[in-house]
Amino acid sequence: MSETRYTKDHEYIRIEGDTGTVGISDYAQGQLGDVVFVELPSIGKALSKGGEAAVVESVKAASEVYAPVSGEVVAVNNELEAAPGTVNEDPAGKGWFLKIKLTDAAELDGLMSEAEYQDYVKSL
Amino acid sequence: MLNRQGRPTQAGDAAAERHETFTGNRALQQIEPLIFEIGHHETTGVDIDKPAPFKSRLGKHARKGEIGLPGLSEPEAMRHYVRLSQKNYGIDTGLFPLGSCTMKHNARLNEKMARLPGFSDVHPLQPLSTVPGALDVMLELARYLMTLTGMPAVALSPKAGAHGEACGMMAIKAAIEAKGEAATRNVVLVPESAHGTNPATAALIGFSVKAVPARPDGTVAVEDVKALLGPEVAAIMLTNPNTCGIFEPQIVEIAAAMHEAGAYFYCDGANFNAIVGKARPGDLGVDAMHINLHKTFSTPHGGGGPGAGPVVLSERLAPFAPVPFIHVENGKSRLVEHKAEAPEGNDPFGRMTAFHGQMGMYVRALAYMLSHGSDGMKQASEDAVLNANYIRAGLADLMSLPFPDHPSMHEALFDDEWLKGTGVSTLDFAKAMIDEGYHPMTVYFPLVVHGAMLIEPTESESKASLDLFIATLRDLAIAAKGNDKTRFTAAPHHAPIRRLDETRAARQPVLKWEKPQPVAKAAE
Amino acid sequence: MRYLPLTDTDREDMLARIGVSGVDELFSDVPAGKLLTEPLDLPRAKGELEVERIMGRMAAKNVAATSVPFFVGAGAYKHHVPATVDHLIQRSEFLTSYTPYQPEIAQGTLQYLFEFQTQVSALTGMEVANASMYDGSTGTAEAVLMAHRVTRRRKAVLSGGLHPHYTQVVETLSEMANDEVVALPADVKASEDILAQIDDSVSCVVVQSPDVFGNLRDLAPIAEKAHAHGALLIAVFTEVVSLGAVTPPGAQGADIVVGEGQSIGNALNFGGPYVGLFAAKSKYVRQMPGRLCGETVDADGQRGFVLTLSTREQHIRRDKATSNICTNSGLCVLAFTIHMTLLGQAGLSRLAEVNHANAVQLADALAGVKGVEILNESFFNEFTIKLPKPAAAVVEALAEKGVLAGVPASRLMPGAGLDDLLIVANTEINTDDDRAAFVKALAEVL
Q1: Residue B362: which CATH number?
Q2: Residue A97 in contact with residue A53, Cβ under 8 Å?
Q3: Could you tell me if B75 and B19 are in contact, meaning their C-beta atoms sit under 8 angstroms apart?
Q4: pTM of the model
Q5: Count of domains in chain B?
Q6: Cβ <8 Å between C271 and B124
C-alpha cells in the first residue's frame, strides 16, 4: 500500500514503507511549463525537511524543489537528464525526482492528503 | 503620360495571392546560411604575403592539426553580414520602447569621435607621456559625471552596469572591512522589484540577500526597510527611479535610516535618464551608483554591448575606489595604476579589469554630453518623462496601470489585468507589436507585476511618432479584447522568422555548428 | 538641441493631454527641496563642429600607434583590421539593436553569435563557447568562480606568467568572495614549479600561454596533474592570433579556456572596449557564465537561433546565478567574427606566420645590440629583453625619438625587481624600416 502526501510548495511524497518517492505535482508542472532540465542531488545526501533537494528548470524559470521530509537520498531518477519532459508528461509516475529514506515518519503528519491538496490547489 | 516601353504601370492583380518562392527568400528578406555552410577552408578574404623563410621559435608548441574554420572572400562576407543585419531591429529602424534599457538615438558624431586615431589607435600601456589627451578625456568625463550626480568621486573602469554594481558593492565591503565589521555585516537588502543583477551582484561578493517587500503602490516604504535593519545589514541596493517607473518618494528617509544603522545605500542608476539635471543622487544620500553610459549617455547598445558602468562614490567610499584612477595634485594629473602608488588617504580595494576601462565609450559619452550641454541634458530628461506620461495618458483607459497613484518617470508600467479572459497573454501582445513594425516593450519585468509591460519611449521620439504608437497599441488592445485572437497568439506573422521553439533549444542544446554526418555513417 | 524632436508647442499639447500644468508636476515624487531649479555648472549645448574641435584637440595630444614604429603589447595588440569590418559593425541594425531578447527580430545578432561561438570553439579546441565576456581579465575571474562551482573547492593557483592585471582582477574578486588565491611570483623564464602547488585542495590552476613575458608554455603536464587531483586547468591567452600558429589549449587538456579577443577585429581603444572569449568542456556548460546562443526551429520548422540555458543567468536565477553579467561585448563580438570570417583558417595561419616571422627577425636584430639579452626560449609575436638600464627610462627616451618600444615590466609589476626588463611585441604592422629604426634608436639610447 502506498500513500501520497503533498506540501504547499507542490512537492509530493509517495510513501512505501520507510522510503518515499518525491516529485512535483501535476499542478506544479502545469505552472512551470515545459521542463528543460532537472538538477538532482547525489545519492547519500542528507536532506532536512524544507531544505533544497533539487532544482527544476523551464525555459524562463528555475524553481527549487524542497524536501517534504528529512532523510537520506537513496535513489535519483537519472532518466530525467535525457528526458526532462517526462516531468510534464507523467509527474506522478515516470517523472519522479528522488527517493528518500525517512528519518522521522512523524514529519508526514504536517503534510496534506490528496483530497486536502486538491482543495488547496482550487483555492489558489 | 505616354508609356513607350509597354511596361505595365498598374499594380495589377498582385494583391491576389502570395505564393511560396523557389528560393524561400521574400524579396528583401533573404535566407542566409551559416558561414560554415558557404565558406571554404582554403578561402580567405585578406591578402597577406608569405614571409621570407625564417627559423621558427615556436619550439614544440607549433600547431599540428588544422583549425577547421572556413573563410569568405570579401564580397561574400559583405553580403553575408548585410543580409544578417536585415533581420535585426534597431533604434534606427523604429520606436524601441524597451523599459529600463533607454534605447535612445545614437548620434554618429560620437562614433566618428571614437574613431579618431588619437583615441582608437592608442595602447593602454604606451608611455603616459604619449597619451595626455586620453587622460584629459577621462578627467573631463569624470567631471561631468560628478557634477550631474552631485557626488565627489567616480571610478571609471567598470565595463558595464553589472560590473559597476560589483565595483560599488566592493567599495562598500572594503569600507565595512576598514571599520572592522566584515565578519558581522553580511546582509544586503534588495527590493523584490529589483533587476536580477542586484541580487546576483550581492551574492557574487559574498553577501546574503534579504528581500524588501514591495508596497501596493510600487514603492519601497521606509518602515519596511527599518524593520529589516540590524547590525548585520551592510547595504541596500535600490533602483531610483525604480523598476516600476516611479521616483522613490521616501528615498531620503531610506538613505538616512541606512546611514543611522551604519549601513550604506547603493543606488542602481539604470534609470538615471529620467533625472539628469533634475535631481542629483548626491543630494538624496546615495553612497554609490553606477551609470550605464550605454543607456543615459547614448553609447550604442550594439546588440548587447559593449557598455560602460562608471560608479560615482560618496565621500566615505571614495578612498576605496579601485585602480586605476587619475589623481590630480597641484594641477598635475597622474594615472595611479597600482595600490602601492595610491596617494595618502587612499586605500584602493583592488582592480576591476585589465587596463583603464572602456575608453571608446568614454569618448562617445563625452561627445554626447558636450553636444547636449547642461541645458540639453535637462531637457532630454524632461522630454523622456513627458513622452512616457503621454503614452500612459493615451493608453490608460484601455490598458491597466498597477500603480496609478504616482506619475511615471521615463517609463510607463502596465500589467495584464486588462487582458484577463481574452486568451491573449502579455507575450502574445508583444509579438503582435512586431507585426505592426515595433520592437516590443520590456515584458514580464519587474517580476512583482503580473504580465508586466514596461514602456520607455526615451526623449528621441517625436510627437507624431508617439501618436502613431499610441494609436497602434489602442488598435491592438481593442482587437485583443474583441477576441481577434489569432492576430496575437500566432504572431508575429510578418517577421523574418516565426516564434521559436525555446524548449527544444534548452532541452537539446545545439551551441555551435557541427559538420553534418553522412547518413550512412550516422546510422552506424 | 538637434537630438530632441519635440517642439515647445508639442510639449504644451502633451502636458495638456496628460492633464498637468507643467513638466515639474510629473516630478512631484522628488522630495521637497531636491528638485534642481537651476542648470548645473556645465557648459551649454554645442554644435557638431564645436564638439569635433574640442574632441579633436584632445585626440591630437596622443601619439597614435599607426604613426610610429610600434612595439607595445602585453595584453593588447595592434593589428590591421580590414575596412569591411568597421563598415559592417556600423550598420544601424547591428549598432543600434539591443540584446536579442525578441528573437524574431534579432536573428542577425543571434546568427552571428552562433557563428562566433563556433569559431571560438574551433580556435581554442574546446567543445563549447559562450557569446563573450567583457574582456580577458574579467573572463579569467569568472572562470575561477566557475571552477569553484564545478569542484566545490575554493582555492585557485595562478601562474607567475599570468598578466599581472589579470592576477589582480582575480585576487580582487576572490578576496571579496572569501576565496583563496595562491599567486606565484613573476616568472620571467617559464621556470616555475606550478605542479608542486597542485593538491586535493586546489580548485583550479590558471596558466597563460603565450604568457605575459611571451613564453609559450606546455599545458599538458599541468592538466594531467590537475585532473589527478580533481582540479581544473584554466588556460588563458591575451593574443588570440597565436592560435593560428600554436597548439590550442583544448588539445592540451584545458577544462576552461579564456582569452582576450581584441586582436581580431578590434582597435586598441586605450584599453577598451575589448571582447572576452570563454570556452569550456561541454559537461560544464550549465556552470558557465554569460549568454549562450542555441539553434532551434520556428513554428514553421525553419531554422532559427535563440538565447538559451538562460536559467543560469541573473535575470532568472538572481542571487543563485552563475554570474551577474548582463551586457557583454556584442559589437566587439561582431567585429571579431567578421574579421575571423574574412581570415578563415587560411588567413589566420598566414597572419600568425607573419607575426612570428617579424618577431623572430626583431629578436635576432635586438640580440645584436650591445648589452641586450633575449630571455625567451620560445615565443610567438612577443618576447622579453633584458637591458643594461631601467627599461622605463629607455622607453621614454625611445618615445622621444619617435619609437614606442614596448612595455617595461615595471609598469605592470613595480617593485618586483624587474626594472631592467622590456616586453616587446611585433605584429604584422611593422615594416623592416620600423624594426631598423627601433634597433638603431635603442643602440643610441643605451
Answers
A1: 3.40.640.10
A2: yes
A3: no
A4: 0.96
A5: 2
A6: yes
Do B338 and B439 fall into the same domain? no
Please report which confidence band the pLDDT of residue C314 belongs to, taking 50, 70 and 90 as the band edges.
confident
Which residue has cell 585557485? C156
Which chain B residues are Cβ-neighbours of C92 within 8 angstroms? 85, 90-93
| pLDDT tens column, B21-48 | 999 898 888 999 999 999 999 999 999 9
Residue by residue, what is the 3-state secondary structure of B245-285?
A: CCCCCCHHHHHHHHHHCCCEEEEEHHHHHHCCCCCCHHHHC
Q: What is the pLDDT of residue B523?
A: 44
Q: Residue C395: its chain B contacts at CB < 8 A?
A: 127
Q: Which of A32, A36, A88 to mutate to test the interface with B (most CBs of B within 10 A)?
A: A36
SS3 readout for C376-433: CCCCCCEEEEECCCCHHHHHHHHHHCCCECCEEHHHHCCCCCCCCEEEEECCCCCCHH
Higher pLDDT residue, C182 or C323? C182
CATH number at residue B407: 3.90.1150.10
**Residue C102 to residue B305, Cβ atoms within 8 A:** no
Residues of chain A where predicted confidence (pLDDT) is lower than 70: 1
Are residues C330 and B337, on separate chains, in Cβ contact within 8 Å? no
Cross-strand partners of C373: C386
Retrieve residue B331's grid coordinates.
594641477
ipTM for the complex? 0.97
The parent domain of residue B171 ranges over 111-367
Mutate which: B500, B501, B510, vs C, most C CBs within 10 A: B500
Contact (Cβ atoms closer than 8 angstroms) between residue B313 and residue B321 = yes
- Residues B185, B233: contact at Cβ < 8 Å? yes
Among candidates B266, B140, B119, B118, which has minimal Cα distance to B191? B266
- Residue C170 CA to residue C164 CA, distance in Å, equals 10
CATH number at residue C177: 3.40.640.10
Helix (H), strand (E), coil (C) string for B142-169:
HHHHHHHHCCCEEECCCCCHHHHHHHHH
Alpha carbon of B320: minimum distance to chain C alpha carbons (Å): 12
Question: Whose CA is closest to C340, among C269, C240, C237?
Answer: C240
Q: Which of B123, B253, A85 is nearest to C78 (CA)?
A: B123
CA angle A68, A70, A75 (to 5 degrees): 85
* Chains in touch with B (≥3 Cβ pairs < 8 A): A, C
The residue written with cell numbers 588570440 in the block is C240
Same domain for B435 and B470: yes
Q: In the predicted model, is pLDDT for residue C341 greater than 60? A: yes
Q: How confident is the model at residue B15 (pLDDT cuts 50, 70, 90)?
A: low
Q: Which residue of C has its CA nearest to B177?
A: C176
Give the domain extent around C29.
Answer: 8-49
Q: Give tens-digit pLDDT for C143-192.
A: 999 999 999 999 999 999 999 999 999 999 999 999 999 999 999 999 99
- What is the separation of C-alpha B446 from the centre of its chain, rounded to a whole number of angstroms? 15
**Cα diameter, chain A:** 38
Burial class (CB in 10 A: 0-12, 13-18, 19+), B522: exposed
Instruction: Tell me the C-alpha distance between C75 and A40, whole Å.
Output: 41
Interface size, chain B vs chain C, as Cβ–Cβ contacts under 8 Å: 715
Alpha helices (runs of H) in chain A, residue ranges in sequence order: 26-32, 79-82, 86-89, 114-123
Segment (H or E) for C351:
helix C330-367
Mean pLDDT for B256-279 is 98
Partner residue opposite B74 with nearest CB, options C40, C84, C334:
C84
The architecture (CATH level 2) of A3-105+112-123 comes to Beta Barrel (2.40)
- The lowest-confidence range among B155-159, B273-277, B474-478, C319-323 is C319-323
With 60 as the cut, is the pLDDT of residue B11 above it? yes
* Nearest neighbour of A60 by CB, restricted to C286, C310, C320: C310
User: Which grid cell sits at A43?
Assistant: 545519492
